[in-house]
Amino acid sequence: ETGVTQTPRHLVMGMTNKKSLKCEQHLGHNAMYWYKQSAKKPLELMFVYNFKEQTENNSVPSRFSPECPNSSHLFLHLHTLQPEDSALYLCASSQDGGQNTEAFFGQGTRLTVV
Amino acid sequence: AQSVTQLDSHVSVSEGTPVLLRCNYSSSYSPSLFWYVQHPNKGLQLLLKYTSAATLVKGINGFEAEFKKSETSFHLTKPSAHMSDAAEYFCVYNTNAGKSTFGDGTTLTVKP
Questions:
Q1: Model confidence over A15-37: pLDDT tens digits?
Q2: Between these two residues, A54 and B48, which has the higher pLDDT value?
Q3: Considering only A57-61, B86-90, B102-106, which range has the smallest mean pLDDT?
Q4: Residues 22-61, chain A: which have Cβ within 8 Å of B?
Q5: In the predicted model, what is the mean pLDDT of residues A88-99?
Q6: B43 touches chain A (CB under 8 A)
């Protein structure tokens, strides 16, 4: 248990659906991240929030929309996804996003787009 | 550009034998380096980190890693593998802007 909780753990959605992934941490961290982990590919950083401000968008398609209402919660809103978006989506948090701070990961949401 | 390379995509060892997972980095300045472990269908968990203090870093579950600047390496070792060590391992490089670059991962298999 890392202190970072993701819900749901599994999600199956059609290409026309709209759904949201939720991430929550009560570690007092100020930086939060979304990563995509696909089979046979390196971990891809999608978005970074530092003190609730988005500091990085790693050329992610607009069908993925992040939201960070406060420093403890992070959402990833999904709409009109493609089958190639099927992957494990990992949320992480760190104290301050600095060079020496490690990330704490949630267990991920396994997303299947049908 | 800064990068990290894990030299083996798969490593297989017998239970009770040593583990060596190799990682090389490329950087123009002093890096911060991390090793994470990921068990099936789980998130990543920090094993250990190097942040310019002692070059030999001890982590959880008996793992350790040595930062060697002359070889630009940060290899992960464990004297004796346990069945529960079977997992995927990631070497991670943090830039001075706090951006993380992940290696491609090494899958460790432990045979009984």
A1: 999 999 999 998 999 999 999 99
A2: B48
A3: A57-61
A4: 31, 42-43, 45, 56
A5: 91
A6: yes
**Distances, alpha carbon A94 to alpha carbons A25, A64, A106, B36, in Å:** 10, 22, 12, 14
Burial category of A70 from C-beta neighbours within 10 Å (exposed 0-12, middle 13-18, buried 19 and up): exposed
**Number of other residues whose CB lies within 10 A of the CB of residue B66:** 15
Q: Which of B37, B100, B101, B106 to mutate to test the interface with A (most CBs of A within 10 A)?
A: B100
Is the pLDDT assigned to residue B30 strictly greater than 80?
A: no
**How far A15 CA lies from chain B's nearest CA (Å)?**
24
Residues 6+ apart with CB under 8 A from A41: none
> Are B42 and A42 within 8 A, CB to CB?
no
Beta strands of chain A (E only): which ranges? 4-7, 10-13, 18-25, 31-37, 44-50, 53-57, 64-70, 73-79, 87-94, 104-105, 109-113
User: Which whole number is the average pLDDT over B61-71?
Assistant: 95
Q: Which residue of A has its CA nearest to B34?
A: A102
